[in-house]
């Protein structure tokens, strides 16, 4: 984010301080990136529990198949490895 905002906004290297237009540009750029990050994290937080539940179900099913294969209920070639 800092690299992108710097490349897009800073164009005057004659002073150590940012010009007011550069400072405004950097602020807007940073706010935009932060807003996008918040949206992405919000979607991630919504979807993560579903992904975890799905993986747990897959692991439980694989464990059940392994147990059944060990008990001789399934042929060994039908066992799905976890």
From TrEMBL:
Transmembrane intervals: none
Record GO biological process: protein transport
Sequence ranges assigned to domain Tim10-like in this UniProt record: 1-45
GO molecular function: metal ion binding
UniProt keyword list: Chaperone, Disulfide bond, Membrane, Metal-binding, Mitochondrion, Mitochondrion inner membrane, Protein transport, Translocation, Transport, Zinc
Superkingdom per UniProt: Eukaryota
Compartments where found: Mitochondrion inner membrane
One term under GO cellular component: mitochondrial inner membrane
Topology of the protein relative to the lipid bilayer: Peripheral membrane protein
Assembly notes: Heterohexamer.
Role of this protein: Mitochondrial intermembrane chaperone that participates in the import and insertion of some multi-pass transmembrane proteins into the mitochondrial inner membrane. Also required for the transfer of beta-barrel precursors from the TOM complex to the sorting and assembly machinery (SAM complex) of the outer membrane. Acts as a chaperone-like protein that protects the hydrophobic precursors from aggregation and guide them through the mitochondrial intermembrane space.
Domains (record comment): The twin CX3C motif contains 4 conserved Cys residues that form 2 disulfide bonds in the mitochondrial intermembrane space.
Family membership: Belongs to the small Tim family.
Name the UniProt record assigns to this protein: Mitochondrial import inner membrane translocase subunit
Species name: Thrips palmi (Melon thrips)
Gene: LOC117649985
């Amino acid at each position: 984010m800092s690299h992108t905002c710097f490349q897009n906004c800073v164009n005057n290297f004659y002073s150590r301080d940012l010009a007011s237009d550069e400072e405004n540009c950097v602020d807007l750029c940073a706010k935009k990136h932060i807003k996008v990050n918040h949206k992405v994290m919000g979607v991630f937080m919504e979807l993560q529990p579903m992904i975890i539940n799905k993986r747990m179900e897959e692991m439980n099913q694989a464990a059940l198949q392994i147990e059944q294969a060990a008990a001789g209920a399934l042929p060994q070639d039908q066992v799905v490895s976890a």
